[in-house]
Q: What sequence folds into this?
């Protein structure tokens, strides 16, 4: 059996038998999410929870001061950062900022692949955020919000993590990257759904993981659409023959101003601003 087929068979069997080792949501993200779900939580208490993880605290300050939020006055404390971001938005933003902790491995080749996956995920996230911000400016009453978009894009391919971990047992797949791409393309959505359900994520995130690589479209623009746009921009959308059809639909719905939307100055500026949150 080829390394490619062996890896796919192993993953499929483990997923079917519910024995695939899934990544665990970082502890600080769990604490923040639990605190945010407490109806009695206040800004000061939330800041204290975030302060338990110095790295996350620094990231939250960076987000609060990022060009993407468009504020010229800098904040210097976590209380100020949480106030600026918003108590309800902190849950998703803090989770998003903590996710980088999952993209690690003791295996050099796996670590290299995870680093590449994280870089690609950041690109997809920044493009998704930029396109949503453009859409929000044209559609003031949309219910889509940026913190949900950020987290949804960051987990859109979370199912790739167990695949890369299992691949350690098959070193031959690293000699031919197409093997891993094949496994990730075929199995990542199903594994990603299982991961998000184990983390008790809302259905809105599960739908992005399930649907971004397909053609199903909701009656109204949704977070999946913006992840698809980002995947198209990065030439990572798997149904290449359907890209033109999708772009035409998104043009009609006003998600983008033109087919080569990444050359739109506003979107390009939003994209550059979004990147400052992750640099």
A:
């Amino acid at each position: 059996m080829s390394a490619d087929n062996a890896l796919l068979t192993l993953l499929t069997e483990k997923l079917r038998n519910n024995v695939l080792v899934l990544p665990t949501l970082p502890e600080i993200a769990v604490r923040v999410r639990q605190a945010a779900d407490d109806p009695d939580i206040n800004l000061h208490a939330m800041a204290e929870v975030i302060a338990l993880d110095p790295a996350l605290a620094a990231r939250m300050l960076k987000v609060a001061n990022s060009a993407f939020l468009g504020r010229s006055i800098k904040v210097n404390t976590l209380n100020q950062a949480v106030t600026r971001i918003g108590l309800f938005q902190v849950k998703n933003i803090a989770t998003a900022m903590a996710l980088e902790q999952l993209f690690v491995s003791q295996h050099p080749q796996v670590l290299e692949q995870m680093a590449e996956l994280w870089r690609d995920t950041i690109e997809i996230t920044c493009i998704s955020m930029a396109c949503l911000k453009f859409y929000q400016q044209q559609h003031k009453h949309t219910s889509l919000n940026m913190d949900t978009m950020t987290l949804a894009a960051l987990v859109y391919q979370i199912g790739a993590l167990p695949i890369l971990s299992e691949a350690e047992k098959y070193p031959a797949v690293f000699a031919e990257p197409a093997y891993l791409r094949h496994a990730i393309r075929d199995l990542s959505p199903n594994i990603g759904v299982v991961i998000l359900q184990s983390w008790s994520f809302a259905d809105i995130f599960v739908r992005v993981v399930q649907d971004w690589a397909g053609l199903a479209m909701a009656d109204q623009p949704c977070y999946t659409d913006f992840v698809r746009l980002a995947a198209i921009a990065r030439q990572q959308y798997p149904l290449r023959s359907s890209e033109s059809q999708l772009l035409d639909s998104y043009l009609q719905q006003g998600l983008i101003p033109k087919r080569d939307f990444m050359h739109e100055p506003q979107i390009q500026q939003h994209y550059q601003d979004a990147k400052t949150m992750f640099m």
